[in-house]
Write a structure and sequence with these properties.
This protein has about 290 residues and is mainly α. The chain contains 14 helices and 4 strands.
């Protein structure tokens, strides 16, 4: 028995009916019968990643035919008939969810720090996003080179290499991280396009990680003699926490740029972490 599947759930149908973009997707397929990805993109004028995300959210209501065009399922056709008949307004009213108490400023701040989806939506939608990346990469390369750390994706290794080599490795690590994430998105989930957004997002994912060399650098030049850098265990705990936070940023960047659900983006993040661990075993790390 499959009658209780998600696409028959009233709250799920309400989420579709109350979202204008998803209604337009349903209406396009209802009118044309079948629509390819390019037609959606040109008509809706949205990013590739955003389109993928909403198409994924409509699973059960839409499917792909042998020509890879999107068509409505029987349930999707039923929903289209509801939309064209005007009955969706009555249904939306009946299914309307109770008002939710708005989050406080502190709750929003904490959520944006540790679940930065909104941050990446703002970055991807702003021309200032590129300027931010330039700042992250330039300041980041300066900080880690002054602190004498060799970057290994999401890890650091003590080094005696020159400042120029360290800075170059930081930039190459950024490109390498982007390539890995893009390849995994394409191979595992067939998500192509919006590479510039992913490139920007991978740079921003370094922000939490750069806190570590920044604190080390301050400790050196100001002679603070912070206890957290005098105790090896505390140092590793701090770095581990910042690495985890950086992975959260990376996961969000992947999900927002490629239109992937959180579970799929997390899988890519975990694979990146595994690749990074293999690199550490090969190179060896001395924090």
């Amino acid at each position: 028995m499959k009658e209780n599947r998600k696409e028959h759930d009233p709250s799920y149908l309400y989420a579709i009916l109350s979202h204008p973009l998803r209604r337009r997707i349903i209406e396009m397929m209802g009118k044309k019968g079948s629509v390819n990805f390019t037609e959606f993109k040109l008509s809706l004028k949205i990013r590739v990643g955003t389109l993928y995300y909403h198409l994924d959210a409509l699973r059960g209501l839409i499917a792909q035919d042998k020509d890879r065009k999107y068509v409505l399922t029987d349930t999707g056709l039923d929903l289209y008939n509801i939309l064209t008949s005007g009955r969706h307004k009555d249904i939306s009213t009946k299914l309307s969810l109770p008002a939710i108490k708005p989050a406080s400023r502190m709750e929003k701040l904490v959520k944006n720090i540790f679940l930065p989806n909104e941050f990446f939506r703002l970055v991807y939608g702003s021309k200032l996003g590129i300027i931010g990346v330039v700042l992250v990469l330039s300041l980041g390369s300066y900080i880690i080179s002054q602190a004498r750390f060799e970057p290994l994706l999401l890890f650091f290794n003590r080094t005696t290499k020159s400042i120029e080599i360290i800075a170059l490795e930081f930039f190459l690590g950024w490109i390498f991280l982007f390539v890995i994430c893009d390849l995994l998105s394409t191979i595992l989930f067939k998500r192509k396009g919006d590479d510039l957004y992913l490139l920007l997002g991978t740079a921003y994912s370094f922000i939490p990680l750069l806190i570590f060399p920044f604190l080390q650098y301050l400790d050196m030049i100001l002679e603070l003699n912070l206890i957290i850098f005098r105790d090896a265990i505390l140092t590793r705990i701090l770095l581990s926490l910042l690495q985890g936070w950086a992975l959260v940023f990376l996961t969000s960047a992947i999900g927002q740029s490629k239109g992937l659900r959180i579970d799929k983006a997390v899988l890519i993040g975990l694979i990146v972490a595994y690749i990074n661990i293999m690199m550490i075993y090969i190179v060896g790390v001395s924090v």
